[in-house]
């Protein structure tokens, strides 16, 4: 909600409500209803810079009765003529016998009379069918007109209720609009748009949350903002309307709950295949879990999430969900969700040591892209299963409290697809991969480009810098696929493979630069197959403890002549 302190109290301002921001003036609800209905009508085409509109011919228009009958008779005669001609051709074009006037007998006249009566009866049947069809058509047109009138009146009434200053009436408006969406298939998306627009209204959370906003425009770092101390906490102002914030929170929660109920497989009337636009909304402790987003398009772009945001148990199926420019002042959870043939993009910022959780989730196909330029928390894929598709984390910057910052894929299974951690700076925290199983697919840390030679200028372009992060690959099992560090600078970080079990696949350090820190393959490593490679990597100051690699062929990194690195490799 937007709050004012009465700066224009002396001006001549008409009474307004929260609904004004949606374009529906309180004293003209019917005009807004007509606008939304016209907007949802695909037969209306807007002409730029002109006040007139062109409309197609009315599909309900009925042609004159005589023309209708003549058209059907002509069609019947044409079909009969074509049929007789085809039969004549099939019977080898027999000659037609001529009958003189004197040679007509009573039997021939009787047969001709029967044919004439049959033709007359057929014409009468055609006329009767045309009349019955027109009557049915007119009844359908009248029925549709009455239905449209009823739907329009219900839409107008629900809009008026949503614009009321009383929370109880607004709640009734939410249910009225949802009921209309169930009954009115042609206008369902319009009703959903109105409910989403209500959620998009400016709103201040009632909880004791630290406020954040992007003051420098899109892409800038979120900054804390001071709360509005000039407005009493019990009453918020929008124009001349007053709202109790706790009551308004109940209305907003009801909108979300109604939408969730229609996105469940067991829903009597589902809203699958619809679009939900929450762009710029403010949410507090959002609960959007245990639903199925089937063929849906959902936008949480530029939203601010306070408290814990729950998307657990969601079935993402052939849908598109976007969090571009979002701020997560808390955590967001996708635990035990299923991603299939969908595209989910989380392009935002975590603040206040928030977490993004994918614990126990399953990735079958599609894309999940996470770009959080500043992570003051953690991203967890604990016990997740990757069977296909691509999961990518781009340009991450781990910073903040080392004790609460990190990434984890502990006890996860990679059976297919690609998991990529591409670009960024890892300055603190821990990367846990304990108990990871890799049988197919790839886990890539660093560049996602095909590895190539050093550029002509002799300078390596590094996409990822590990300057203070601990990578724990303890008890990892590799049966196939690969774990790849590509174009990575290891400067003060530790990469450890304690109790590694490797029967196939690859561990690749391609084009890396080991400045400081430690790379450990201790003696408790068990390698029965596969390859470990440090191709085209440079060892400048790091400690490489490769005791566990004495039984396998290893392509070692090049050592700088001026480096003070320490190597331990059993021959």
TrEMBL record:
<feature type="region of interest" description="Disordered">
    <location>
        <begin position="210"/>
        <end position="231"/>
    </location>
</feature>
<feature type="transmembrane region" description="Helical">
    <location>
        <begin position="69"/>
        <end position="91"/>
    </location>
</feature>
<keyword id="KW-1133">Transmembrane helix</keyword>
<keyword id="KW-0472">Membrane</keyword>
<protein>
    <recommendedName>
        <fullName>Pentapeptide repeat-containing protein</fullName>
    </recommendedName>
</protein>
<feature type="transmembrane region" description="Helical">
    <location>
        <begin position="112"/>
        <end position="133"/>
    </location>
</feature>
<feature type="region of interest" description="Disordered">
    <location>
        <begin position="549"/>
        <end position="571"/>
    </location>
</feature>
<keyword id="KW-0812">Transmembrane</keyword>
<feature type="compositionally biased region" description="Polar residues">
    <location>
        <begin position="560"/>
        <end position="571"/>
    </location>
</feature>
């Amino acid at each position: 909600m937007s709050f004012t302190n009465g700066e224009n109290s002396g001006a001549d301002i008409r009474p307004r409500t929260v609904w004004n921001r949606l374009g529906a003036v309180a004293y003209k609800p019917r005009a807004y209803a007509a606008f939304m209905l016209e907007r949802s009508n695909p037969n209306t085409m807007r002409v730029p810079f002109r006040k007139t509109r062109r409309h197609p011919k009315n599909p309900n228009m009925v042609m004159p009765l005589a023309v209708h009958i003549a058209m059907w008779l002509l069609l019947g005669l044409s079909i009969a003529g074509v049929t007789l001609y085809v039969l004549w051709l099939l019977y080898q074009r027999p000659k037609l016998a001529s009958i003189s006037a004197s040679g007509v007998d009573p039997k021939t006249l009787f047969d001709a009379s029967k044919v004439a009566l049959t033709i007359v009866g057929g014409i009468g049947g055609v006329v009767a069918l045309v009349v019955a069809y027109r009557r049915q058509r007119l009844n359908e047109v009248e029925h549709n007109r009455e239905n449209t009138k009823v739907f329009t009146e219900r839409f107008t009434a629900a809009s008026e209720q949503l614009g009321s200053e009383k929370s109880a009436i607004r709640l009734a408006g939410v249910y009225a609009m949802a009921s209309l969406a169930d009954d009115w298939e042609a206008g369902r998306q319009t009703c959903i748009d109105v409910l989403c627009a209500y959620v998009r209204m400016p709103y201040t959370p009632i909880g004791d949350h630290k406020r954040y906003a992007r003051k420098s425009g899109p892409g800038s770092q979120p900054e804390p903002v001071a709360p509005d101390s000039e407005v009493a906490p019990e009453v918020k102002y929008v124009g001349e309307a007053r709202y109790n914030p706790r009551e308004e929170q109940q209305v907003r929660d009801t909108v979300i709950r109604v939408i969730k109920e229609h996105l469940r497989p067991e829903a009597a009337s589902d809203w699958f295949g619809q679009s939900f636009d929450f762009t710029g909304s403010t949410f507090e402790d959002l609960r959007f879990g245990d639903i199925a987003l089937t063929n849906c398009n959902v936008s949480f772009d530029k939203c601010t999430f306070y408290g814990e945001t729950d998307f657990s148990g969601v079935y993402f199926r052939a849908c598109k969900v976007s969090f571009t420019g979002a701020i997560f002042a808390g955590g967001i959870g996708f635990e035990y969700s299923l991603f299939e043939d969908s595209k989910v993009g989380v392009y935002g910022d975590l603040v206040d040591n928030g977490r993004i959780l994918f614990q126990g989730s399953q990735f079958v196909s599609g894309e999940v892209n996470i770009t959080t330029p500043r992570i003051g928390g953690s991203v967890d894929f604990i016990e997740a299963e990757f069977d296909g598709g691509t999961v990518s984390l781009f340009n991450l910057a781990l910073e903040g409290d080392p004790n609460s910052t990190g990434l984890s894929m502990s006890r996860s299974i990679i059976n297919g697809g690609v998991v990529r951690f591409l670009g960024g700076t890892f300055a603190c925290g821990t990367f846990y991969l304990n108990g990871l199983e890799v049988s197919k697919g790839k886990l890539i840390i660093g560049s996602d480009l095909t590895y190539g030679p050093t550029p002509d200028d002799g300078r390596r372009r590094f996409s990822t810098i590990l300057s203070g992060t601990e990578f724990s690959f303890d008890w990892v099992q590799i049966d196939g696929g690969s774990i790849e560090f590509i174009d990575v600078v290891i400067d003060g970080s530790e990469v450890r493979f304690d109790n590694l079990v490797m029967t196939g696949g690859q561990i690749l350090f391609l084009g890396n630069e080991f400045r400081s820190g430690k790379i450990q393959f201790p003696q408790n490593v068990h390698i029965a197959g596969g390859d470990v490679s440090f191709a085209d990597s440079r060892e400048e100051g790091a400690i490489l403890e490769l005791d566990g690699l004495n039984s396998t062929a290893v392509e070692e990194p090049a050592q700088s002549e001026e480096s003070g690195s320490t190597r331990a490799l059993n021959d």
